Amino acid sequence: MNLRTPLIESRLPAVGTTIFTLMSALAQEHGAVNLGQGFPDFDCDPKLIDAVDQAMRHGLNQYPPMTGVPALREAVAAKVAALYGHVYDAGAEITITAGATQAILTAILAIVHPGDEVIVLDPCYDSYEPNIILAGGRAVHVPLTPGSFRPDFDRIAAALSPRTRAIIVNTPHNPSATVWSADDMRRLAELLRPTDVIVIADEVYEHMVYDGQAHQSAARFPELAARSFIVSSFGKTYHVTGWKVGYAAAPAPLMAEFRKVHQFNVFTVNTPMQHGLAAYMADPSPYLELPAFYQRKRDLFRAGLAKTRFSLLPSEGSYFQCVDYSAISDDSEEAFCRRLTREFGVAAIPLSAFYPGGFEQHIVRFCFAKKDATLEQALDRLARL
User: Fold this and answer.
1) Integer-rounded Cα radius of gyration of the chain
2) Predicted local confidence at residue 14, as pLDDT
3) Are 83 and 199 members of one domain?
């Protein structure tokens, strides 16, 4: 018998195990405090669990509509209208997704054809380029300004071409924790005005913006809203990343194409969790209070880091804090993170992992979405550096 497994040509030959998986495994191996991967180590609101439990016990356990439970889509539309002033039609313009990562992949597969270009702004979330490759497109990498991580609109303008199908914008930004200003969004709208370029707005940290700033959603700007897929995450907002539930909002013609792909890559999303989230969203206070909740954690963490030899970069949004370790070590970022995990018991992520081919700046990223006790334990260990 011939039991040989056929050889295939990889669709993603450059993709291996992610740095997040590697660092989390190293953290577990050495009993380190894991401030690398971006997830909370505390529980969500028990009321949210109760809402999902009630949905399950009331028999809401079969397939929901492909586009998502109507009550949840309506709750999303109401939230976006209240916060950003743009009215989406819940029936035709909002789709519930299996997390934000699936929403981004689905948007790219819906609009990108072989040979199309998609502008990505580095450093960026690691799923963007593989998604573009799977669609047959080409990622055009434009760096954010080193040091400040502000968008360089001259370089973005230079990257636009007749082949540009889309640009991916992430604010609040992972990994740099910067946020785009209203002027930034208006400048983007101005650049794209004479084009048919679509915006994929990754806004999963929309409710984590600090120091009195407001999140500048693409939905706030009519020119951008008319050409954007806006993606967000219930997992990030409600501390339930493992539930993998998010949503996309877009004008009806764009959403119609999105749904063509969505129905065949996931079809639909966990029914009782959708009903539970819809009921829980009737009270807006959990997401309205989130900036203060995470700003307190950010400030606690930054106060502790200020007593170390790290140099702190600004943390304007998201639940990340980047630091420069130039005063501590000449190691590469990955080598430093590995040593930090093995010898000092704290896991971080090298910023170079968010650049194609790596880009060394002696900067690493910590996640402060942790219990106070976890942060204090990490700070005690980092003080030994």
Assistant:
1) 21
2) 87
3) yes
